[in-house]
Amino acid sequence: MPSAHRADRIDAQVLLALAKAPRATTIALAEQTGLSRNTVQARMGKLDETSALRSFERRIEPAILGYPLQAYILTNVTQRKLDRVGAALDEIPEVLEVLGLSGVADLLIHVAVRDADDLYRVAGDILGIKGVKRTTTALVMREMVDYRISPLIEKLID
After folding, report:
1. In this structure, which of 53, 62, 96, 138 has its CB flanked by the most CB atoms within 10 Å?
2. Is the pLDDT of residue 2 over 60?
3. Tens-digit pLDDT profile for residues 98-120
4. CA-closest candidate to residue 39, choices 19, 21, 13, 16
């Protein structure tokens, strides 16, 4: 759920420093931004309180865990069963992320699997969820632009 908090230039300075050094302490962020420690701490507190900061879980390459193949599965769902479908998807370990969509499909499911047979099994598990009507699977051939947020933060500072 998006935060109602709207970042300003000072928030952007703190966020950019945090994006560059996710493990930085408040003192290190203050030094990097030229802001006082109290300002950085207050801003970080406000960003945390408004859920503007997402999980600090590091993005780990699934291939290192034995899941070299990734795919996106577009899924059509019976609308009144959407919450139940979401809960069932949360139980499938290979599901990395699920986004609700408007348009041609209801859900976009990002999965990581061991091989084509594993993808067939996971896609079957998803199709077997009560309320899932149809799926279309697309393999990830390569990443063209990795997830990033810094360019948007930099626009706020400029």
Report:
1. 62
2. no
3. 999 999 999 999 999 999 999 99
4. 13
Which structure tokens are listed for 51?
Answer: 């859920």
Q: How far apart are CA 18 and CA 9, in angstroms?
A: 14
- Check if the beta carbon of residue 41 is closer than 8 Å to that of residue 27: no
pLDDT, position 57 = 72
Around Cβ 78, how many Cβ atoms within 10 Å?
Answer: 13
Helix, strand, coil abundance in the chain, percent, nearest 5: 45, 20, 35
d(CA 70, CA 142): 9
The tens digit of pLDDT for each residue in 36-91 reads 999 999 999 999 888 888 877 778 899 999 999 999 999 999 999 999 999 999 99
* Angstrom distances, CA of residue 34 to CA of 29, 57, 84, 113: 8, 27, 48, 45
The C-alpha atoms of residue 38 and residue 27 are separated, in whole angstroms, by 9
Structure tokens at 2: 């998006």
* Integer Cα distance of 106 and 104 in angstroms: 7
Q: State both tokens at 98.
A: 């699920």
- 88: Cβ contacts below 8 Å, ≥ 6 apart: 129, 130
Burial of 34: CB neighbours in 10 Å, binned 0-12, 13-18, 19+ = exposed
